[in-house]
Amino acid sequence: xxxxxxxxPPEVLAALGASFRLHEHPDVASPVExxxxxxxxxxxxxxxxxxxTPEDRLLLAxxxxxxxxxxxxxxxxxxxxxxxxxxxxAGRLARAGMRPGGVCxxxxxxxxxxVFDESVGSLGRVHCGSGRPDSSIEIEVAELIxxxxxxxxxxxxxxxxxxxxxxxxx
Length: 170
Description:
Blueprint (H helix, E strand, L loop, with lengths): L8 H7 L4 E5 L6 H8 L6 E8 L5 E7 L3 E2 L1 H8 L7 E2 L2 H5 L18 E5 L7 E5 L5 E6 H6 L5 E3 L2 E2 L12
Parallel strand pairs: 2-7, 3-6, 6-9
Antiparallel strand pairs: 1-8, 2-3, 2-5, 4-10, 7-8
């Protein structure tokens, strides 16, 4: 008998009573593609990068869509060595109810370590991954963060000095 597939982020959020909207769109893999598909500003997206530790623990880093991750800062915030971070593969994401291109800071993996960049909390209403590359979640960032009660907040992102731009995807 096969184990049932883990529930995805929308189901986790619904079970918590969070208020959000699910937006369907063509498969996308980057925040720029999301903002082009949905017509939302890039600075109103939260991208989530997924890693695994040597103990196979999922580590999720949530930062503004236009920011770059500071890997050393993430490792320190998560209490691991920088060299111990490996990108999560499709199989590891599937065990958390997600697929590549749709990673979300909210997951069915209760043991996941989630670190939000300190700037995310002031973003207001945002779009983030839904667990699938063909849909995104629109949610107030306060509800998104509240859905991960064990989340840490740390300065893990480098924000660009100039205004982000959402370019149409060719």
